[in-house]
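Changelog-adjacent note: as of this version, every example in the card shows the full chain rather than a window. The one below runs 753 residues end to end.
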Amino acid sequence: MLGRMNVPEKLEEICRIVAKAAPRPLNYVEAAAKPKSMVAAAKTSGPTARPGTSHILVMASTFENHTSDQVITKLRGVIDARKIEFKRRVAEEALNILFTISGQQLYKDVLESVDRLEELQEEISTNFSVATDLSSHHFELLKDKVIKKVQPMLSTESECRFKFKNKLPAKDISGKQSEIFALIPHRGVLELNETNYVQVVFKPEENISVKAILECETLGGPTEIITITGKSSDLHFELNTRKLNFKIREFYRSAVEVIKLYNTSPLPFDYTVYLNEAKDGDSLAARIVSVTPYDKLLQPYEEVNIQVLVKPGLTGYFNCSFMLEVGYLPHLTIELEGWGVIPQVYLSLPRSHVKKMSHELCYQAVASLTSSFLNAINELFEKKYSVPLNSPVIDRCFEDPELQEEWHICSIADEYPTVMDIELAIERILFVKHIQKCPEIMVNTSENQTEPITDFSTMPYVIDYGVVIIDCKAQCVVEVVNYGPVHTKLRLSKRSVLPRWLDVTPCPKLAPGTSANVNIVLSPTAREFPEVEQAVETSFHFEVPCGVRIPVTVRAICAVPYLVCNVANIDFGKVRCGDKVTISMPLRNVGKATCIWYATLSLKAPTPCPIIIHNGSGMFRCGDGSFIKLSFTPVREMRYEGSLIFKFHMNPDRLILPITGYGIRPRVHIIGPHINFPATLPFCSERDIYFGLTNPCAFPIELIFPHTDVKWKEEEEIVELLNTYYDRPDEILLPKMTPGAGFPPALVNFIGI
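Full-length structure tokens:
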């Protein structure tokens, strides 16, 4: 055995094995003689070789196996020289032999034995010169052959010099710390003023905290203690969100949202952001401008705010993403969503052009009003509904079977788009189509722009005042709603020139979701509108900064109230004093304005006035009319002249109709007013005396001798019946009777006499 041979024989045997394994010169065998200055250090490192003494010489062979996993295997050999006597002291030279092998993976059985060996490298002081001769040999093909030859001859067990050594407690260097920590190198020789660095490798298990003591033994000196602490932990972090909701943003301004990344683990890690934005994509679509900081090393329990800068674009809803890599963990996908829109303002006025839009456009607008978009709008308007579910109205709806089958029951709390939402959605679609046709418009759009988008006007609003009385003011209060997403101020366009009879009050600055009132006053004058009726139409524009132009059309009919009558004058004719004649005169409002009228008389006659207006005032709407009744009851025999004057509210002009009438008194002149019969015998022949009646009037008169006129008695009965039938009124109007003709036959037949 190699262990029973003396040192020269052992070295010769090793060299012989090496020479056989490597017939070519050894390139990787170091056989360098040390200078004499190093001999002293070598001598102090061990006992002095004297005759009759025995020593344990240790030969260190280091084999480095360069494999894919960079495993370094140390091989130790121990030479037992207890029974060898040194004949002379060797102190002149010291020789280091270092075997470095790079090659294939060691065999399994060899590796198992090598792992059990203690790594050792020690100087061998000898005067043997055969190893020096081996320095010229090539060592390229040693590799596994040397291991196969040398390892079996190196005994891993050495005979103990002292019998009781096994009874002493040995240091326990085995343990879990040996699996967690590794030292490279774990031993060595330091020359004078030499420094060597030892690499401590930490190979922890998952989530542990360890504290170890490293003992550095100095041969012949004190032991130094080094405390090693270490921790291992998985990467843990907190992310406030993985889906950023930018909500509703203006298209021309970059939007910023923040992601908070917090390192909750006790070890640092770095993160990196990866963007996948196409450089030649749609210029109107949303895109991620930047993510800052792009990458960073987070210390334990450190927090960082990652700012995401996004250009919302004009296409409305956008959904994009980027990748976030945290340490060695899999990539995370961060989603971004929101809406890029134009600043919009809504007026509480009707729009006639909406009905002319195509059904496809309207359905497209309604489809864009998703629940998430309506929720974002409700946040701007801060709408909060509290609807009781047990109200009688709701209970009645759910109990009605017809409503359950044919109707969908919805309340104010349901997310349904309003007319404002639909109209503004149509406006956004029209705006995007306009920009797609003229993309050069967006070149001049900036964040500080105060002008609206060039060459685009939305659907016009209409203010219809209806009929406005001239010299009066008509006021229209318009509610202006800021639909968001930014503060804005509605202003009158510089291109709009308002007429003198139209006034528009300015609108204050509005926050998103708020509203204000704008007063638009129409005040026509008679100088500007001399006609009785005149239709007028004008328009002006409101402007929204970085938004659209809002045309407003104003329509009105400027008119004055007036009435027309198809009677040019009123003539009562000749009326017997005491009689009453009634005339009905038609009166109609043919204008557009509602007319409030008053009728008065201007008569050139002493009081009392013989003419009475039965309905002297009233209000006629457009197209209304009625009959005005006038009665003439002369009390004197004279000619009556005057005027019937109609006055109209809010109209300085008047309608004047002349009135004439004659009051006559029937008279008769009796010729021979005294009749004297002489004395006459009874039952004698009749005697007649005549008297004459003369009509001095210019109209026929009727003479009645009641005690002899039979018709008179019938007429008195008719009058009594009429008084009884009408509960004896103050007056009864009868058809006009011609003198001598009596009552009309229709009246006589009605009475039945």
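Structural remarks: Residues 237-341 form a domain with the Immunoglobulin-like fold (CATH 2.60.40.10).
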